Amino acid sequence: MAIQTILVINKSGGLVYQRDFSASAPRLSSNEYLVLAGTLQGVVAIASQITPKSLQITRKTGSKSGSDANHSSQLVPYVGALGSSAVPAQELGSFMGPDYFNEAFTSWNTTGLKHVTTDQNSLFLYQTLTGVKFVAVSSQSATSTMAVSIAENLLRKAYCLYVDYVMKNPFYEPEMPIKCELFDKRLGELVAQL
Amino acid sequence: MSHKIINPSTSVAQHPAPQGYDYTIGPQQTLPDLPQSMGPSSASTFASTGISTTGPSAASAASSTNLASGPSVYSSSLHPLAHTQQVSLAAYAFLFQEMVAQARNASKSVAEIELRLHRHGYHLGVRLLELLNFRSSVNASSRSAFFKTSTAGPSSTSATVSSSAPSAQLHGYHSHGSGDAAGATAAAAAAAAADDGHALAHSISHMKRRDLTMVEILQFVHSTVWTYLFGRPSDDLVKSSDRDNEFMIVDHAPLLTRFISSTNVQCDFFVCGVVEGVLDSACFPCAVTVHSVPDDKFPEKAVFVVRFESAVLEREALRA
């Protein structure tokens, strides 16, 4: 899975970070990226609106009572070895595990858009509890659940990096475009390891 | 290495109810502070409310064995149970972030931000010299003896404290004022106070020797201060080859600025302030600056340059 682009969209739908990782990435103008971010935000909002109310309620009660059948549908399996063995433990940020996290996690994106697949490309979306969205564009058409969970793991790691290197940077203004050298660097390392 | 020492804070298992701020331990978690008397019943309430008490205590036990492998009074808090008290790196980072942001909002220029951070650190350094020297003066036996008496349970000691403490203070005051008052009673009162476990200072037989030469005090900064602040000694201590009064403390990956992308503001000036505070209050007036010297292996390498005033050099020459 070749990652072409990673985007970060803030909770109000503005594009705060965009980076291309391969030379073959489609050249979009910065304005087009902004439009893409806004469109995704709109689609996510609509998708959560059109989820039937009854489904939302059963999901909620299901996860509260802790029944496994409902729970597992929201649980993303942990995909280890995203090339992380090369990173010495000290290089990591404030997370304790050798790989930021090392167990399956609950997807917070229960009602919104998760991925878009075409014959040429696929787009994955990871939403955090606070409404920040991480988007990865890959150059392969990936439909398998494995590919989706790999992408979710990757984007969750990107989120961990965001939490460490962007939110803990005193020179970053919340909701503004991200210009943090260390975040750039670590994200580059993460994607290069794939 | 640092991730071993700074872990998310866990509650201290079987810790007696803290009575106010204990300067030998530092700030303590006070949330699950239940009176000792309701011991067995409190356990059941914990279980019923769903707060797992076994998880953190098991984790803290594991980490305490981990840290106890090389116990040194220099680096650790004096309290026997304090090894399990750790600070979360994330909390540390957020606090520092807020400090920098505040300095930035209040200043007009880059130099002013750095000066403010430097000043914050200076006050920390002045206190740190005192604290760390005090801690290293307490040996293990007196420490355990002191804390054993103080952890004997509030109900048994409180009665004796309330009866004897006022008289002891009174006797001590009299002997001070009149000079020739019965020394025996004063000594007895002091002994009683020590028995009550109210002054750790009583159990110190002699203080640690003061660091008198530049190299000694820099070693103290390089190892003791750094270990206390960052969980490891600094990576190198170098003497400048061209200037006699110049020393360099090298840190390959400064902990405080770990998450801060390099900008034109050097946030490590806070650590400069700490070092200068320690050295100044130890009577080694100096100026400390920091320079980031990135190399291939350590892209965040920082060098703290200590320039002593000429008076220090002259004093050193007289001693030699």
Automatic annotation (TrEMBL), chain A:
Q: Which CDD domains match?
A: TRAPPC4_synbindin (cd14856)
A single Pfam family it belongs to is Sybindin
Q: Does the keyword Acyltransferase apply?
A: no
Query: What is the native source organism of this protein?
Result: Lachancea dasiensis
Q: Which family does it belong to?
A: Belongs to the TRAPP small subunits family. TRAPPC4 subfamily.
Source organism's superkingdom? Answer: Eukaryota
Per the UniProt record, the lineage of the source organism begins with: Eukaryota, Fungi, Dikarya, Ascomycota, Saccharomycotina
The GO terms describing molecular function are:
guanyl-nucleotide exchange factor activity
Q: Which UniProt keywords apply?
A: Endoplasmic reticulum, ER-Golgi transport, Golgi apparatus, Transport
Please identify the protein, giving its name as recorded. Trafficking protein particle complex subunit
Automatic annotation (TrEMBL), chain B:
Write out the ranges of the annotated region (Disordered): 1-50, 149-176
Q: Which GO terms describe its molecular function?
A: guanyl-nucleotide exchange factor activity
Keyword line: Endoplasmic reticulum, ER-Golgi transport, Golgi apparatus, Transport
Domain of life per record:
Eukaryota
What does the entry list under GO cellular component?
A: endoplasmic reticulum; TRAPPI protein complex; TRAPPII protein complex; TRAPPIII protein complex
Principal location listed in the UniProt entry: endoplasmic reticulum
A Pfam family (short name) is TRAPP
Signal peptide stretch: none
Tell whether Plastid is among the UniProt keywords. no
Provide the protein's localization. Answer: Endoplasmic reticulum; Golgi apparatus
* Gene Ontology terms: biological process: endoplasmic reticulum to Golgi vesicle-mediated transport
Q: Does the keyword Endoplasmic reticulum apply?
A: yes
Family per record? Belongs to the TRAPP small subunits family. BET3 subfamily.
Q: By what name is this protein known?
A: LADA_0G07404g1_1
State the organism named in the record: Lachancea dasiensis
